[in-house]
Design goal:
Tscrpt_reg_LuxR_C, disordered C terminus, globular, Sig_transdc_resp-reg_C-effctor, alpha/beta, Arc Repressor Mutant, subunit A, single chain, Response regulator transcription factor
Length: 231
């Protein structure tokens, strides 16, 4: 008999996390080894349990799902990641795949589809929701050249993506430096480079970019709805 799939679930919404965990735990071929509410705790639990598969929410506060995916797949080659998201933007899907994700499904899918994706990835296959596959194909065919697409083709480094997310969520330069264990000057330099790369005029435009690319959500922005912090 094949051993049950050891699965780590990362989802920042408590109700969805608990509901998914309950449904997955009821499957005889799946064993839930841990639940994470953000990217950092997901990486920590992955290092501890070394699961066969991580079901990863893409948009989480602090450390996002894509960067968490990058860290896990680079450190734990035996662990595969299935991204779960409400976003079908081409840029986000491409970044998830580039980070090492083996699959990408939308939160609008049914449980049967999610289970099918989990089994496919555990068998060393890739899996994309039909809508995601359609988006990628159409984008490839049309080669859109709008200003937004121009921004999307700019490749930010993993560190720059972290800083974009934290800035959009209202963290100041000093706080970001403390979280990432770098100097404030380093954060400021990254910020200048990001603004230059993306041709953005300020934090408002950067926040809009982060929302469009799914690096953060309105729920995560400005930390529980508070006013933006001074920088």
């Amino acid at each position: 008999m094949t051993a049950a799939i050891e699965l780590l679930l990362a989802e920042d919404h408590t109700l969805l996390r608990e509901s998914l965990a309950k449904m997955l735990a009821a499957e005889p071929d799946i064993n839930i080894v841990g639940l994470a509410e953000d990217g950092l705790s997901c990486v920590k639990l992955a290092r501890e349990h070394r699961p066969r598969l991580v079901l990863m929410d893409v948009s989480m506060p602090g450390l996002g799902g894509i960067e968490a995916t990058r860290r896990i797949t680079s450190e734990l080659p035996g662990t595969r990641v299935l991204c779960l998201s409400m976003h079908d933007a081409h840029g986000m899907v491409s970044d998830a795949i580039a980070a090492g994700a083996s699959g990408y499904v939308l939160k609008t899918c049914g449980f049967d589809t999610l289970k099918r994706a989990i089994l496919a990835i555990d068998r060393n296959h890739a899996y994309l929701s039909p809508k995601i596959a359609h988006v990628l194909i159409e984008d490839y065919r049309q080669h859109r050249a709008t200003s937004l697409e121009h921004v999307r083709v700019v490749r930010l480094t993993p560190r720059e993506r972290e800083i974009v997310q934290l800035l959009a969520e209202g963290y100041g330069t000093r706080e970001i430096a403390e979280r990432l264990h770098v100097s404030q000057k380093t954060v400021a330099t990254h910020r200048e480079n990001i603004m230059s790369k993306l041709h953005l005029g300020g934090v408002a435009e950067l926040t809009r970019y982060a929302l469009q690319e799914g690096l953060t959500t309105l729920e995560n922005g400005y930390r529980a709805g508070g006013p933006p912090l001074r920088r």
